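JOB MANIFEST
job_type = single_chain_structure
chain_count = 1
residues = 568
[input]
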Amino acid sequence: MSSAAPAESLPKIWREVECWLLVLFVVLSFGLRLGDLTIRGEETRRALIAREMLDSGDWLVPRTQGQPLLSRPPLQNWIIAGISLVQGRIDEWTVRLPSVLSILATALLVYAYGRSFLSKLGAFASGMVFASLGQVIELGRFGETDAMFTLFVAGSLLVWHLGFLRNWNPYLTWCLGYGLAALGTLTKGPQAPVYFVSIVGMTLLIKWRAGYAFKLAHLAGIALFAVLVGAWQIPFMKTLGSDAGGDIYVADVGHRFLDATWGTFLEHFAEYPLELLACLLPWSALFIVWNRPGFRQSLSGKWPQVGFQITAILVAFPSVWLPPGSRPRYFMSLYPCVALLLGATIDRLAFAAADAEWRRIWPWFLRGCSVAIGAVGIAILGVSVVDAGVWFAQPIAFAWVYCTATSLASALLWRLLTDWREPAFRAAIVTIAGFVALTQVGVMINAHLSTTPNTIAAVQELKELLPPGTRLVSMNMAHHMFVFHYGEVPFVKWPESEYDVPNDLDFFCVDARELDGKKLPFEWKEVFVVPCTKHKVQLYQLRMIIGQRISRQPAADDAMASAEIELE
C-alpha cells in the first residue's frame, strides 16, 4: 500500500489516478441532469439580480424590481451575470455552474490538503466523503451561495494552514488566507472572516506561536482583505448609505434569533448535533471508532493536520449550535474539515495492524451500508409498484433499474467485508458514494419533477389571459420566481387609500403573504394564481395572486376601465 506523502514536499496530485477518479465522480454526480429541474427557491433571486445588473448596468447594488435587495453581497450574482454574457442567456446551467465548479474546486482542495499527511487512499477518501455528503450533493447542484461560500471559507483555512505548516513565505500565507476570506465575505458575509480569524487565532495560541500573528505579513493580509471588500463596500455605502452597508450582511441572519425562548433554545441545543450527524450520514457512523482503545494513538504524526480540523470544528460549532434558528446547512462551510477527519479515519483503518481491536469497525460499517442500500432500493421499488401516493415514488422502469443497482452495490459491499487490500477500500468508497449520487441524481430529481408546480406554464397561461399590452404591477415586492419568469413587473408601494392608486391601474399582482392581515383599499377580484413554491408537499404554498381592479376613485373616468376577464 502507498504511504503518506513526505512532510517536506507535496505530491503532484494531477499525476495520481485517485485525483482524476475524484474529478470524474464530481463531474458525473453534479453535472448529470443539472438542467432538468427548473430554477427554483432562492435560485430565481440570484438569477433575477444578475439579470437586472445586466439590464441596468448597475453592478454595485443587488436589486430586484429595481429595488435594492439587502440580502447578501453580490459576488455570486457577478459570476452568474458574467457567465450569461458568454452563454448569451440566463438559464439553469448559468445559475448552477458556479456551484458545481465550487464543489469540484473544494473536493480537489480537500484531496491536495489530505495528501500533505495521508496516503493517496486517505486523501481520495476525504475528497469522496466531502463530495458525497447528502447535503453537499444536494446544495452543490443548485444556484445557492452555500457551495461557493464553502470553497472560500474552507480554502482560507486549509491554504493558510498548509502554508503555516510548510513554512511558506508569511506574506503569501497570510494574503492567501485573508484573500479567500474576503471572497467569502463578498459571497455571503462576515462569517468567513470571523471563522478565519478565530480558528487561526486559536490554532496559534494552542501551538504557542502567537508571535506568528505579530508580523508585517499579517498586516499585509488584513490590508488585502480591506482592499478586496472595500472596493465594493465603500461605493455601495456611498450609494445607499452606511446603514445599508451593515444590513446587507445581517438581514438574512436575524431570523435565527427571532424565536429565542428557553424552550426553543433547549430543543435546538439538544437536536442540532443529531441533525448534523444525520446530514453527514453514512460517513459520520465511522466516528464511532474514535472511542475505541488505541485508535487515536494510531494518528501519531498526523496531529498537526488532524488537530487543526478538530480546532476549526470546535471553534465554529457554537455559532450554529446556539442560535435557535440555525440549520445544518449553515455549517456546510466546515464540512471539508469533517471530510478530512473521516478520510484520516478510513486511512488508519486501511493501514491498521491485523491485531488492532478497532479494525473491526470497518467491516461493521460496510455491513450496515450494505443492508441500508439494499433496503432503500427495495423500498423505492415497493412504493413505486404499489403506487402508494408518496412523493418519492418513481417511474416503474427507473425503480427497477434503481433496485437492481442498489442490490448489486449491496452485494459488492458484503463481498468486501473482509478484504483489506487498497483496491477493496477504494471500491467500497466509490460504491457508497455512488449510491448517494444515484439517489440524488435519479430518485430525488424524479421526485422533484413530479412534485414541482409548473410556474413557467402558469406564467405563460397568465400572459395569454391578460389583454394585450397589459401593464402588470406588483403591490409591494413580488416573489422573485414570478418576476424572473414573467419579466418586467413594476413595483408599487402598498396603497394606504384608494386615492393612492393610479387611475390607469387595472391588473396587479400581490404575494399571497402580503394579504395576511392586510387589505387593499379598493374593490378587486382574483383572476389567476401562479405557484411560486418548490414542492407541492410544502406546508405553506408560496403563490402570486393576480387581481383585477373593479372600483375606481370617484373622479375617475369610467371609460378607462378595462373589460373584465371572464374566467372559465
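[summary]
The mean pLDDT is 89.
The chain has three domains: 13-351, 360-451, 455-560.
exit_status = 0
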